[in-house]
Amino acid sequence: MCKKIVILILTVVIGLTLISCNKTTTPAAPTDKEKSTTSEKSTDDTSKTDNTSQPEKKPEILSGTLEIWSSGEELGRFVKGFNEIYPDITINITVVPNADFIAKLTPTLASGQGAPDIFTGESDYVKYLVEAGYWDDLRLEQYQAKTEDVWEYIVSVGTDAGGVLRALSWQSSPGSIMYRRDLALDALGTDDPQEVGAMLATNEEMLKVAEKLKAKDIKMFASWQDIFNMQFSNRKQPWVVDDKLIIDDSMLEFMDMAKIIMEKGYDLGVDPWAPEWIAAVESKDTFCYVLPSWGYQFVVKPGANTTKGKWAMCQGPVPYVKGGTWLGIYKDSPNKKLAWAFLEYCCLNAKVLQDYGAEYGEFVSVKSANHALAKGEGEEVLGGQNPFVFYNEQMNKLPADLMTGYDGTINGAFLSTTKDYATGVLDKDAAIAQFKEDVKNAYPDLTIE
Amino acid sequence: MNKKPTFSLALMYGFLIILLIVSLVPFYLMIINGTHNSFDIVTKLNLLPGYSLKDNYLTMQSHVNIWRGFVNSLCITIPYTLLSGYFGAMTAFGFAKYNFYGKKFLFGIVMASMMIPTQVTLIGFYHLNLRLGLLNSYWPFIIPGLANATTVFFLRAIVVQSISDNMLEAARIEGCSEGYIFNHIVLPCIMPGVFTMSIFNFVASWNNYIGPLIIMTRNEMYTMPVMIAMIKGLYLSNYGAMYLAIAISVIPIILVFCFFSKYIINGLTVGVDK
């Protein structure tokens, strides 16, 4: 009896090992992929003949399933409209939490099995994905992306070091200082965006205004870390040049500024996205957020209830952009035609983006759509100010794009050591040394002086 | 004489009641917050139920199908817990009561595997499952239950302590096979230990986040922790919906604790030599 059981178990175990060995020797992945590519090819061929007979405009009949991995939900907003044009394309959007997006994406792309046709890249790591070459060249013959009408910034971020365009976006995220009109009128004597903006023209002047507000028991900022969004565009050089870590002087200035704000109590003393930080939209004593367009869309606009109409946008010391999500087509995707149809629909179609911007209040990537939206009525929350007018101006004044693939990690390390310095845990030299140490741990290949 | 015990009793009860409140309040707040909207949650301390339960539920369902995630989690967690309990006990019995060549070495491997954090093996785990063709299935999370090092380690000590060799010899003389001895004599004796480990295994498997996130690519296969993370979104903060989802996800854990804890208390009298 006992022997029989042992023999049985042994056979099962050996059998299993054989099966698994078998699988490793005959690669399962390529056969799978081959199958799908061959099936795709046949549909591709038929649609190609369609395409040559009917140039442009009339959409070709495409069908199939498109797999999209996204770090946010916004892409889902395009699906309904897209399906009106291409009813036979099923779109599966997998939303992967942003913090774990790269962790999930990397092994999948390395193996190639189960990889999505389109995946997004959030600003923190989009440059890494652009340079990694997993995205297809969007200027290839089958795509021929026309980007004249797209903000230069969007194209520049989506272009790799070799000048190849790999990703585009439906949104762009110019920055602003969003402040409370009522508090400005009370403490500064005006609520006009131009005049308030003039009072905040440099970092020093911002701190002066903060002092004025403090006299009235008003906190100038929700969190000093918000200012980093803007300071990020105030640098002269990116974090990494020729594999060497560069700490721009403006970053050192920012550290001191953070310390002053912390010591004098110009902010709420909480981290961004903390409950108190979100709740400050409705507070009686918080003057402003330094946030880009997504900050208005996701923080101020949904949060403002009793403070509707009491908000306004103005420019801070520098015009800036921060954030945004780019889209690219996986280079080995079997569904490139479908993927391009979707990408073109949400990143380059001015009509679609204009409707999208009007519905969701999001500043989009295509200039003509934004200009059309700037003619519309102002926002109730902003007391009639039209954010599109403001953002369009800002986009024209933008400095060069300083993004690198290292940004997400380095920014995190920098903010955390700046926090240690601002709260007095470390002195400035120790904080900078700590920052360099953290960067070295994350990227041992970088030269750090 | 009469007064003193009442006073110390009152003190003891008072202390225990405070402990009870401290441990229950977070659960209570979690459930109550599930009925408030995000804004109330971040601005106030809510002690009474709110009116946003339905809204929160709809928000939650618009992001993910939470009940599907619930079923997925159960499909993984229950077989995993059963397997790790049964096979863990079996391996532990083997290590404790049999002498064979290489026993120390094998047990060394068991010990060593307890010391490797899962994050380190994650990429390897992914590639292994890729080669085995097990991506997008529950198997990568169920099969490892067969070889749960912690369970083996813990139960081995219990077997050594509570099962005497005499008893096994007596069983053999009576004509029991080794399998019969394990199933009918050893396993019932160490059940309290198995239940204790099962609680830990259940909770660990239920809360596994990074594993399912990496292995599964299909939304409908995701487990509860992954779904909860998906509700949060990139810029949005649906606190109400998240609290509701977390409250739902905690239900099985609480049930398992309630159900198994009585066996643990019985476990204080574990063993046969009484």
Order of helices and strands of chain A: HHEHEHEHHEHHHEHEEHHEHEEHHHHHH
Helix content of chain A: 40-55%
Give the termini separation of chain A: 71 Å
Instruction: Give the biggest beta sheet of chain B.
Output: none
CATH superfamily of the largest domain in chain A: Periplasmic binding protein-like II
Beta percentage of chain B is: under 5%
Question: Order of strands across the biggest sheet of chain A?
Answer: 2-1-3-10
Shape of chain A: globular
| CATH C-level name of the largest domain in chain A | Alpha Beta
Assign an overall shape of chain B: flat
Oligomer: heterodimer
CATH architecture field of chain B:
Orthogonal Bundle
Structural class of chain B: mainly alpha
Helix content of chain B: over 70%
Number of helical segments of chain A?
A: 19
Radius of gyration of chain A: 26 Å
Span from first to last CA of chain B?
A: 38 Å
What ranges of chain B have pLDDT less than 50 throughout 5 or more consecutive residues? none
Ordered list of secondary-structure elements with their pairings:
The complex is a heterodimer of chains A (449) and B (274).
Chain A: H1 2-25, H2 28-53, E1 64-70, H3 76-85, E2 89-95, H4 101-111, E3 118-122, H5 126-132, H6 152-157, E4 175-180, H7 181-188, H8 193-199, H9 203-215, E5 219-221, H10 227-231, E6 240-241, E7 244-245, H11 249-264, H12 275-279, E8 286-292, H13 293-303, E9 311-314, E10 325-329, H14 336-347, H15 350-360, H16 367-374, H17 387-396, H18 407-422, H19 428-442
Parallel strand pairs in A: 1-2, 1-3, 5-8
Antiparallel strand pairs in A: 3-10, 4-8, 4-9, 6-7
Chain B: H1 3-33, H2 38-43, H3 53-63, H4 66-97, H5 103-114, H6 118-132, H7 139-142, H8 149-162, H9 165-173, H10 178-189, H11 191-206, H12 210-215, H13 224-232, H14 239-266
Helix pairs in contact in B: 1-14, 3-14, 4-8, 4-11, 5-8, 8-11, 11-14, 13-14
